[in-house]
Amino acid sequence: MNSIFSPVRTFLAVLILLLFTNKAVKAQFSYGGVRLSYHNVRFDKGGDFEGTRLNDFVANIDLLHRPIRNFAFGASVRIPIVNGFKYQYILDEGNFETITGGGILNEDQVQYAEGDFYYNIKNTVSLTFLGRVYFDTESNIYLDLRYTIASYDETFTFERSSGNLPNRDINYQNSVSTTGIGFGVGYNMRISDHFYFGYALAVDFLGTDEVSFEYDIESDGFSSQNPATIKSKIDDSQTAYELSASIGYIL
Description:
two-stranded antiparallel ribbon; 14 strands; mainly beta
């Protein structure tokens, strides 16, 4: 991670130094805005989970200061409004699979039968620090360098009491922290002396070192299949996309 952040820190330090030493480009603005966004998180597609994703509608509160014309810095708080989660779990070349809202099935549709199966990931409130570069002194088009601190609430339930199948009673809940860098591009258009309207697109590359759940789910005694391993994919990297529209006030 240090190999990533060292050149970024050097670039920002040189950029800020050059801009502050150019008196012709000095300015003083502060921005406060609200953005409504579609937020999509793609989890690692390798391994057991295929097509696991969050599709959320979120609100963002932005606060930025623009001390000079070409550069601004600040932070954004993201608050989930509507959470949507979809997943698909595939194991042993399709002999074991489950999709959102469905049970665990295989070719005979009985070997991993359960009384209650539930899996969910939810976004929580997150914080993003922003460094913003405007392309020229008169332009409202900008490029963002982002660092995000976020977390997910994860829930997994598997309860089974049926015939030859071993009884299981799993109820797992945890909050998993994740961080990462990202990039964004956007445009702000002034609609009056103090108000602006804007839109933006951002991509964040997130990851965590925290260990989440992993369980072996046994089949019945007549099955030749190995136990199915169900585990969280939050342990791996995630890619988050955000498309937003905003309105704000210029101090």
